[in-house]
Amino acid sequence: MVRIGIVGCGTIGSHLAQTIEQKFSRTARLSYVSDRHPAHIEKLKRKLRLSHPKTVSTSELIRQSDFIIETASVQASQEMIPNVLKLGKEALILSVGGLLKIKGLRQLLAKSRGRIYVPSGAIAGIDAVLAARKGTIKSVCITTRKPLKSLQGSPYFNRYRSRFEKIKKPTCIFKGNAWKAIQNFPENVNVAATLSLAGVGPQKTKVQIFTSPSYRHNQHEIEVEWSLGRISTQVINLPSRENPKTSALAIASAIATLGKIFSNFKVGT
Q1: pLDDT(244) > 80
Q2: What sign results for the dihedral spanned by CA atoms 19, 24, 30, 33?
C-alpha cells in the first residue's frame, strides 16, 4: 500500500484527497497532510469518509510518505523538491513555477532515485511539444486570457493595482517570457512554466496575458513553430468554483496524471 502525503489542503489538494479515497484505495492510502493553514486541513478531513491522515510538518511528510503531492504554492514546491529528490522520493508537483527557481535542478535529478511528475494542467499539446523536441523548435508562445478577479492578489496586480482598476475591456497586461511571468503571476500561469519545461525553457518561452471584467473563462492558446511543422492549440475552461485562480481542467489533469501513475495501462506520451 502506497502511503501518500499531500502538501497543501486547499481546492486541488481536497479534490485529489477525495480521488485517492474513491478511486485508488486498493493501491494507495492518504496517510499524511500538511498545510500552513490549519483550517484548510480540518476542512479537508471533514470531506473524507475512509481516510484518517495524520497532520505533520512538510519535512516529516516527505520523510514518511512513499509518494508526495504538492498543491500548495510556488514557494512550497521550490523549498520541498530538493528534499524530495535527496531522499529518493516520488512527487506530483502542481506549483510548477517552483521548478524554475531551483538552482542545479538537473544535477539533483541526475543524482537522485526520485521522480518528479508534472501534469499538463489547463493546457493541451504538451505531448506534441515533447515530441517536437526530436526536431528543432523555433519558437513557443502561450497567450492566456483570464477573468480580472482571478489575477487579484498576484505580485503584478498588487504593484499596478490602479492600472487594473481602469481596465474596462480586453487588455494585454503582460508580455514577457515564462520566467518573468511566473515571478509576477505565481498562482496564475503555472501552465507557462509547464510549457517551458516541455519545450525551449523559461527564458525563450513567450507569454502574453490578457484580462477583462467581461471574461468568464480561462483561455490558453499555444503556438509552436518547429522544423517539421506547426502546433496550435486552444483550451477554454471554467475556473474552479472554490478558487477562481485555479482552472477546473487543472484539477482534472492532476487526477488524470495520478491515474497514469497508479495504472498499468498508460495512454499518451
Answers
A1: no
A2: negative
Which of the following is catalytic: 15, 52, 217, 220?
220
Catalytic annotation present for 15? no
Give residue 243's pLDDT. Answer: 79
The DSSP 8-state label assigned to residue 263 in this structure reads -
Query: For the segment 78-110, what is each residue's pLDDT rounded down to a tens digit?
Result: 999 999 999 999 999 999 999 999 999 999 999
Beta bridge partners, 247, equal 239
Dihedrals φ, ψ of 140, to 5°? -135, 130
Per-position DSSP letters for 199-248, written without gaps between them: TT-TTTEEEEEEEETT--SEEEEEEEEETTEEEEEEEEEPBPSS-TTSBH
State how far the Cα of 246 lies from the Cα of 72, in Å rounded to an integer: 12
183 vs 95: CA distance, rounded Å:
12
Q: Residue 79 has which C-alpha cell?
A: 523549498
Secondary structure element (H or E) that encloses residue 39, with its range: helix 38-47
- pLDDT tens, residue by residue, 169-207: 999 999 999 999 999 999 999 999 999 999 999 999 999
